[in-house]
Amino acid sequence: MKTERIIIKGVVQGVGFRPFLYRLAKKLGLSGIIKNTQSGVEIIASGDEDSLNQFRKAILEEKPPNAFIREIAVEEISYEVWQKNYGDVLKEVRIVKEDDASEVELDLLPDLAICPDCLLELYDPKNRRFKHPFIACTNCGPRYGMLIRLPYERENTTMGYFPLCPDCQKEYTDPMNRRFHAEAIACPNCGPRLILYQTKVDEPIAWDREALNLARSFIIEGKILAVKGLTGFHLICRADKPEIVKELRRRKRRPSKPFAVMFPSLELLKKYCFVDDEDIRLMRSPQSPIILVPGKELLPKEVAEGINLVGAMLPYTPIHLLLLEGLSFPVIATSGNFSDEPLIFEEERARKALAEIADYFLVHDRKILRGSDDSVLKKIGTVYIMIRRGRGYAPYPQMLPFSTPLQILALGAEEKNTFTLGLKNRLIVSPHVGDLGNPETFEYFVKLIEEYLNLYQVKSLDFIVCDLHPGYQSTRLAKSLAKEKNIPLLQVQHHQAHLLSVLAEEGIVPEEELLGFAWDGTGFGLDRSVWGGETLLLQGLEFKRIRSFRPFRLVGGETAIKDIRKIALSLLFEVYGEEALELSHPLIRSFSEKELLMMYRAWGSMDKGAYSFPLCSSCGRLFDAISALAGVCFKNTYEGEAPMKLESLYNPQIKGAFPYSLKENFYFDWEPMVREVVEGSYTKEEIATFFINALADFLCQTVLELSQSKVIFSGGVMVNGPLLKRIMESLEPKGIRVLRNKKFPPLDGGISLGQAYYGMLSFIFSKTS
Fold first, then answer.
1. Residues noted as catalytic
2. How far apart are CA 151 and CA 11, in angstroms?
3. pTM of the prediction?
4. Domains of the chain (ranges plus CATH)?
């Protein structure tokens, strides 16, 4: 006989891991104990050596589908130690309660979509959970959003407020049952309840199944509902009626940003969108993200005007499945908030804040402690790009190829913010937080950081890491915390952080020279100008800027990011000087004479220091300018509007590219293409296609000239489908390995990951120098 202590770390709580271990131990004739700890799961197992070997092998090969094992530690213990600490339990297998207060090394599990087994039971009239809106098991349901504290036990979640009925208690304590220690277990007799309210009326108008049926009838009538789901509120209404979508836009103060669409059935999804088996598999996976897929132009233009992609999703919770059951039309399922404000997940706040938007509220009495936006992927050819990482994916950790003693907090960027905790050998990235320029979002950001530090029991920090931009709220908070708590502060340039986020994902320590492209809208440069078209060589933590875009003086400064006519005007002044005022171009005619003269004088006075408008070398701003010059879009009413509309006009059947040249200092000179757009007779499709092809050709030319075997891409521009597709199709057949963000966004949602990796690498390189 032999006895082993096995400690398993990773995502191993809330996924049915202990029941799996119990059944496996029983099958192999082992005895011992199994328990959750603050590090993961601990097993004391006793048996013959062959059975123990089989046990350890099966743990890795047969683990539950949502489990993630990042480390297994095994040590043999003597029979005497066993007897002293655990008594005579050698005769059986037991699951026992956690009994220590060790350091937290556990990975939190995201909230998960309904699993296939629960889906079958949901529609089985003979099952006691038939059409129960809170059906869940060890493979699905709420996790991250309901956790009060670690370890993951029912009493440490908001489901602890619901005492189990005898039937559920029997399942919960039966090791052979799928719901053995399923902390989200519930049934119609003991679980949460659905409640339907009319806006601004305190008394409920219906409960449970009646609430669902009535809510469904209101959707059919054309009402707007606020629905409390797994991780927050959705605003739901018909997507097939233009007047209803327009009304939602008016109430939500969201004039044109595309809405996500939930399709009640697979048949409806296929009717409205071009999808393949992999798209459907992802939409039905435990993560069930929104996927941006090509639409068939059957939805009203008000859903996503000027965009040829649909943000498509399938119902992923029993509440959504039952609410939309039998509907013959798709619905808008957008975040429950006003535009640019954080997702609302608290019922009391929702019923006040969303009263101006929703006609009715379908809620439940299971408390959500922290919200997560729906995750969004974009399909480009056969690959998927993470646009927004939230429900289903966060806060899964990114494992490192090395371990450090460090505890680091990286605070990310200003927009599309996330933050990251770096703990020893893992980077834990928060779900999407949003725009920190919004006071409510910033307040939630600060609160969520505090929650993470408490959940992971981080008592002290070795570094705080932030962006260089002095105006970012995250930078200001970082400096304040560093000063207040006497913690060293590291600041990382924005585009360096973009590239490092890819290396973190790939597990690459940059000991050899690497080439990277970080193209986006805005980043504070080392020379204090607006960067965003960066070609960088990096080795260790040293970065060299070797190519960029020709800089231009950004007339209007920050205001030009929304009124992108000003960006285009800046380029026209650079190319034509005073003659630009006399051009008969539609963009020029969109300004009054007075406005034109004023902006030209401002542009001409910049060299004399009369105005503080910044120099800009951003690829994202170049997209804005070309979009405005082509007459595609004059104003960004939401971030990325102009580039997205330009991308939608790309036609792969059109061959060719605009000319460009490389200036001294290796600047990509956009002047030849601006002249072509202004002076040539091109369609909007041709302008979009020739422009995107020129950018791709410039990048590929640079890679080939520098004879690189691998290249890194990151930044918001790298979510442009035609651009990325042309680059990959050009480079990969030549044997060049393309490194890009896969699990994390190449947009600013990945910045905190890159910042945290910089902090971890600073320790590694300090030890080798």
1. 18, 36
2. 12
3. 0.94
4. 2-96 (3.30.70.100), 108-191 (3.90.870.30), 194-386 (3.90.870.10), 394-507+747-768 (3.30.420.360), 549-740 (3.30.420.40)
